[in-house]
From TrEMBL:
Entry annotated with the keyword Transferase: yes
A GO MF label: L-histidine N(alpha)-methyltransferase activity
Keyword Methyltransferase: yes
Native species: Flammeovirga agarivorans
The protein, known as: L-histidine N(Alpha)-methyltransferase
EC code: 2.1.1.44
InterPro entries assigned: EgtD (IPR035094), EgtD_Methyltrsf_superfamily (IPR051128), MeTrfase_dom (IPR019257), MeTrfase_EgtD-like (IPR017804), SAM-dependent_MTases_sf (IPR029063)
Domain Histidine-specific methyltransferase SAM-dependent: 8-310
Length: 313
């Protein structure tokens, strides 16, 4: 087994050796990154969380009614802080459902279980620690499933990756099972861009935390003050991208990789895509599966959507 540290080092070496440097947003989420993301969700500029919260608060009852004919396993991919999920779950019949949050972080599972027990004492909660697909397979039962993938988390994937991911989900689901998929919708730059370049600089800190992690975990010597955060958004294609920009010509040595990397002034490291969606893009992603778009819920500003995709056969 290759250790997590080695995988991280290999990824960093590959990404920083490329002509067009890149690092994966997957590595944002250490303890500090998770705390920063929780702060991002509370920012005025970061409309995504509030919009999805509105949908689940105002239409959670309608969503629950769609599934009210018998037992249901509600599996959530990525446990999160549970606040939005609670708004949805409180509408279900607790005699019929089991809530199964899945997360790679053991602590995230413990936290969400404690919170749900406190908020909704009658709800059965069975958290699972580990990789999404392995876990779904492991409890592949005949029980009816609803898989929650909220917060536009799919948006960190390219459309190709999203197709692969949705295809894999399709593979471990039975006909009649559904996904509740939360997606950010394509809208104008003056709304999207501030969400990824907030005034307080929290998103900048979140992005630059990647360099901090490389320093801490791989023995790098990035000087964070010599790099800055850059967010872009192309309204036509509906993709926001985040970069780290080198403020000057400089070199950085990373012990664990035993290599020096050179950065030109204004050179970019691509760190994240945040895809925004419309129905054509979604249809393209589910093409080749038997998922059918059965229901669509949106907030009153039409910024965000929660879709129900149901597997037919
Ligand atoms: C958690 C992937 C939905 O892309 O909007 C927030 C992460 N990045 N600010 C997003 C994020 C910068 C977020 N997702």
């Amino acid at each position: 087994m290759i250790s997590e540290k080695t995988l991280f080092a290999q990824h960093v070496e590959k990404g920083l050796s490329d002509d067009k440097k890149f690092l994966s947003s997957m590595y944002f989420y250490d303890k500090k990154g998770e705390a920063l993301f929780r702060q991002i969700m509370k920012l005025d500029e970061y409309y995504l969380t509030d919009c999805e919260m509105e949908i689940l608060q105002s239409q959670g009852k309608n969503i629950a009614e769609i599934f009210d004919d018998g037992e249901l396993e509600i599996i959530e991919l990525g446990a999160g802080d549970g606040i939005k999920t609670k708004e949805l779950l409180r509408n279900f019949d607790f005699n019929q459902i089991t809530y199964r949050p899945i997360d790679i972080s053991q602590q995230a599972i413990i936290d969400i279980t404690d919170k749900m027990n406190e908020w909704l004492p009658a709800l059965k909660v069975k958290g699972i620690c580990g990789d999404y697909f392995k876990m779904i397979k492991d409890f592949k039962t005949d029980k009816r499933k609803l898989i929650l993938f909220l917060g536009s988390n799919l948006g960190n994937m390219t459309d190709e990756q999203a197709k692969g991911f949705i295809g894999q989900l399709h593979h471990v689901m039975n006909s009649g099972d559904s996904i509740l998929l939360g997606l950010d919708l394509i809208k104008s730059e003056n709304i999207v861009l501030p969400a990824y370049s907030d005034n307080k600089g929290i998103t900048a800190e979140f992005n630059l935390n990647l360099l901090h992690r490389i320093n801490k975990e791989l023995g790098g010597n990035f000087k964070l003050k010599d790099f800055s955060h850059l967010a872009t958004y192309n309204e036509k294609e509906g993709i926001a991208k985040s970069y780290i920009k080198s403020s000057k010509n400089q070199s950085v040595y990373i012990e664990e990789v035993d290599k020096e990397f050179h950065f030109k002034k204004d050179e970019l490291i691509h760190t994240e895509v945040s895809r925004k969606y419309d129905l054509d893009i979604i249809r393209n992603i589910i093409e080749g599966t038997s998922f059918q778009l059965k229901h669509q819920f949106t907030d009153h500003k039409h910024y965000f959507t929660d879709l129900i995709l149901t597997k037919s056969n």
